[in-house]
Write a structure and sequence with these properties.
The chain is mostly helical. The chain has one domain. Helix content is 76%, strand content 0%. 25% of the residues are buried.
Amino acid sequence: MKLIIKLLEKSNTDTALLLLRIGATLMMLTHGIPKLMQFFSGEPIAFASVMGMSMGMSLALAIFAEVICSVFIFLGLGTRLATIPLIITMLTATLYIHANDPFSSKELSLLYALIFITLLLTGGGKYSIDYMISNSFKRKTKAA
């Protein structure tokens, strides 16, 4: 019990950011990988045409966000930049695809948007490739 209290007293922000990054991106991949499979299936694309784009282009952009950007966030590489396409995709799902649906249909995409906005504001944290690169650059700058 004392160990748990000591752990809770410490600032665990970086551990929380790691868990948030990994959890959110693994769950996002469960949405993106089926889209990727559909894209390469050879069958006609059945996806929403968003803002005048073709169904294929809309699907490709969703795949880029949900698969490629998720992998970057998972690794903590370009975390802040990689969140932007995901935020746009989730807000598009909320405000465009599910615009006339009840809140329960919008809730998941809003939750993902909130997570990715949080990561945009905080970055990947200490347990990320971004942090390692930043520290390496700082050490080289001080040595020079």
